[in-house]
Amino acid sequence: NSQSEDRDVHVSRFCTGLGCGSRCSMARPMTDSHRRFLQTIMCNGMIEGSKAQALHRHCCEVHGVHYAHDRLDEFLGVINAHLQPMFMHIRKGVSEEDGQQHYALVNIAETDITRMASDYSDNELELFRKAMDLIVDSENGTASSTDLLNLADSLQTKKMKKKETEQVLQRLVQDKWLCEKEGDYTLSTRCIIEMEGYIQRTYPDLVKVCNICRSIAIQSQMCENPHCGIKMHIPCVAKYFRGRTDPHCPSCNEFWPHEIPELTRPPSQTPSPSQPRSVKENTAPFSQGSRHKRLRR
């Protein structure tokens, strides 16, 4: 439709215009390889780490730029320098489900739930806030569907019926703010990456960083030594204690009493070096007329 086409043109013009202004004169100039990478992540919103590596290689090869497999962070640094005046940033985070790295394009000017105001009503945002409260305050970083549905009666803005609440929760999952598995809800990787600052400010006594990967830990295990109390993500626990029959806290050396999960690998994701799979990418030339769909943010 015309609205989608206008958005496509806007994204393309945004990417084409980056690197041309005086505000970024001190930064290294952006090449078409940088703009192609940015345009693709704007379309996808978030990209898993191995796909980001493959996309980096693809963008460099398509535009004849030297590719170095260990220079992704440096490559993204150039893009982020040009995004800074727009208060945007490509940020790296870790999935609490499998420990895999992800890259997301985030708005650093809006650091709390108000960033969602254009997509959700006031009572829907209140429901999300209360859902976050339950999830963060839980022992294992999850909240049951029953507990979340019961929140509808405690809303101050406007009460919701059960069916309405179910529909809002489904939207939050579809928009990748929440994850749902077998009736239990968790904060999604996207939510944690984009709302990291808000989560740390709102729950300073509940949220700690993982002792291993240094990202905030919600689904985690905690050292039971009252003078220690470090947290580790479940995948980080599995990796750190792999092969150890007598696990001890990496910080205080007290015995680690929790069950050590098995290290499970996600399904094989080995995209072709020349074209990353499952990543929507625009192959049209970078021009004001090129069209590129952007998912609803």
Contiguous helical run count: 10
End-to-end separation: 18 Å
Overall radius of gyration: 21 Å
User: Could you tell me the mean pLDDT?
Assistant: 82
Describe the structure using short key phrases.
single chain, 297 residues, alpha+beta, 3-stranded antiparallel sheet, globular, disordered N terminus, disordered C terminus
Word description of this protein:
The protein is globular. 37% of the residues lie in helices and 12% in strands. The chain has helices at 2-17, 32-44, 49-62, 72-83, 122-137, 145-150, 162-174, 189-194, 196-202, 234-240, and strands at 46-48, 88-94, 101-107, 143-144, 178-181, 184-187, 208-209, 216-217, 220-222, 231-233. It has 297 residues and is of the alpha+beta class. The chain contains ten helices and ten strands. The model is unreliable at 2-9, 19-25, 268-275 and 283-297 (pLDDT under 50). β2 (88-94) and β3 form a beta hairpin. α1 runs antiparallel to α2 and α2 packs antiparallel against α3.
Summarize the structure in short.
With 297 residues, the chain is α+β, with helices and mostly antiparallel strands.
What order do the helices and strands come in, and which of them pair?
Blueprint: H1 2-17, H2 32-44, E1 46-48, H3 49-62, H4 72-83, E2 88-94, E3 101-107, H5 122-137, E4 143-144, H6 145-150, H7 162-174, E5 178-181, E6 184-187, H8 189-194, H9 196-202, E7 208-209, E8 216-217, E9 220-222, E10 231-233, H10 234-240
Antiparallel strand pairs: 1-3, 2-3, 4-6, 5-6, 7-8, 9-10
